[in-house]
Known about the structure:
This protein has helices at 84-93, 98-115, 137-149, 159-163, and strands spanning 3-15, 24-26, 29-31, 37-52, 57-60, 64-74, 121-134. By secondary structure, it is an alpha+beta fold.
Amino acid sequence: MAIWIKYSSCVNLKPQENHQESQRHINGQPLHEEDSMLRVLFSLYKFYFLGNLTDGSMFTTRPVKISSKETCIPITISLVDDHDEEFKEILTVMGVPGRKQSKILRKMASVARSKGTCSGVFMDVELLVGTYQEITGADIAGAERESMDVEAGQIPATKSSIDALERVVFVGG
Length: 173
């Protein structure tokens, strides 16, 4: 049964929801000079792909947010380059391998350069970790057999649920 992991990322500048809020806190510190700072939000999502390469069937789960980390950096000419060590530390804590970190940092730098960093926006860095697992017909059959082995147990009813029952009569036809 083959298993492999794929990392992908999406980096965008998005509008701040409450840009006028002057007493915003980042990492426990009040943010007073909001117009000279850029908020960077890292979010890690995990999902699974289960695929049968023989018949081509594929099942996937919805991405689930595992963790997020927010930081705030001063807006400078070389925005990402000045803070790449801080960003690498965040990515390392989130479990992103070093070889993938440089690609994410290049995306961040590219977005910052191409779109500029005006006030009222934040950088949203979404990290997607997809675990791909190949399944075979034998895996599916085994799961079906295992699920059939579990016997349904009886769950006793409470007196109030029994009292709430209504009698129903079916007329044959």
